[in-house]
Structure formats: C-alpha cells, structure tokens
Fold:
Amino acid sequence: MHVAYLTPEYPHPFCPASGGLGTSIKNMAEALSIQGVQVSVIIYGQKEDRNFHEAGIDFYFIEQKAFFIGGWFFYRKKLQKTISKIIRSKRIDLIEAPDWTGITAFMRFSIPVVIRLNGTDAYFCALDNRKQKLKNRMFERLALKNADEIIAVSEFTGRKTMEVLSLKRNYTVIPNSIRTDDFLPSDKGKLSNTILYFGTIIRKKGVLELAQIFNYTVNIYEDANLLMVGRDVEDIFEKRSTLELFKELLSEKALMNFQYIGALEYKLIKEKIEQAGVVVLPSFAEALPMTWLESMAMEKALITSNIGWAPEVMIDGETGFRRIK
Structure:
C-alpha cells in the first residue's frame, strides 16, 4: 500500500517552522514506513519545488504561487494537477489531507481522500469567540463534505467541528501519537526550579494568562524561573508581538526570572523538558496537543487547562488529576 500525506508543514530543515500538525504527520509517516508501507509526504506552500527520498519516505515540496486574482482557487487547481501526477506516477492508494482552511476544496482525485481534524479555522474561531472569514468557512465545509472519510484527533474536536460547520458526517477518532522512545522518563530536572512553556507564543494557548500565573508564583517562590520556547507570532487582536504583550504583563520580579530562547528544532525539545521541574501549558484552544503527550511520556509534572479535549488526555486518577472550580 502507498499512503500520501498532504500538509503545509513538516519538521525538516528545508521547511519553515513546524508545529504539532507536522510533528504528528512525521511520527505516522516514519512508523508506517518502518512497517513496510510506502509513504509520500507532499508539502505545499513552500519556497520552491523540491523532490527527494529520505529515510524511506518520498518528499515532494510544492512552491507557493501568487495569482493576480482568485489565488485561493487557482493555487488549489495547481496543487490538484501536481498531486494527480504524483498519484499516477507513484501509484498512490490513499491521501490524507489537513482540515485547515479546507485545502482540498475544489480538488478531485482518483483515489480516496481522508481529512484529519486537527482543528479547522472555524473550530478555533469558535473556541476563541472570534468571527471567521466567510470564505474559510465555505472552503472547510466543502472539503469535509466531499471527503471520503474523516478522522478526528479527539472526540471533542470531531463533535465541535461538525457542530460549528453544521455538518452531519461520521468520523473516526484516532488520537495524535508520539514516538515514546524519543521521550523517555528522566530524573534530570527533578529538583529544578524551572517552569517550562513550549509551543507557539500565541494568545489561544494561554500565554497571556501564564504571565499572571508566573507573577503570582514568583511572589511565593522567589527562585522560580520561567523558560519559554517557541515561535512568536503577531497577536490577532493587538496586531503586534504576542511575546511583547506577555512581557508587558510580567511584574518587575517576574521579568528578571524570565527567559525566552525562541523556536528550537524538534530533537532539542526533549532536553528542555528534561531540565524543567514543571511544564505549564494552559491552552484555551487545542485539538489534542502533542506538547502534552511529550511531557506526559517523560513523566514530567504537567499543569494544563481543563476544557474541551482535555479530559480525553488528562483522565482523572489515571493520567492526572482534575481540579474543577
């Protein structure tokens, strides 16, 4: 069998920064390849076209193209043409696509298309109480309506997506996964006073609330340090750096005990988790976070939010303890 993954991101030196979506695809692609399944990864929105074979996987980078008008339609048609050639030449049997902004809307292929729900734009807008662009809603709804099968990474994500987009589609829940051999438990950092946040620096992941949490913490534990790892993005409301907004909320004492080291390669994240005494990830909007799984696999003390998808990961008395106000 030959499976292809269509994605806008992937943890590879040739790609820009990648998040949980790319990591989850990498984990699946490598695991399937080890099991003898032929795997191709097709990455769109890239700086240039590039094809190569690496670690048992075929990679196809597709350049982002600008169009004077109707780019949302014509780029999709360009992708369809390019991907169809790959499907024919490599005899691909199945393609999995992401749900974000409905990239497969207006595309038709000769093989089944499976869409995996990692959180549509509609889903995150609903969780953030933001208004969604009408065209994004249309694309996402059309893509999901036309998909042969739908996978959700959590029951909450599947149910909420169908509700928000007013769809009645069945879906199968297949949670995100990690390579546990890459995140083995470690005693390093057991007595550390470092609090770790890792992930995109963005409002929806609770980073602004984290500033208030740390202000409170350093008043009680003066030697507590906060280390923040991840890519800073422009805040959707303030239209400026989320990191700067975060720092403005820190007290003078908290600011002295705060360190930001930017985005790291995926393989270096383990080292930072090892060195931390506790990991704090107070997100308001997720599907099923890879960061939670990585921290839990290493048996680190992990403090998270307690909404939506969370009870599917933090099972009270089994994988953690829930506290409800």
Observations:
- The CA atoms of residues 20 and 290 lie 6 Å apart.
- The two ends are 49 Å apart (CA to CA).
- The first helix runs from residue 20 to 34.
- The chain has a mean pLDDT of 94.
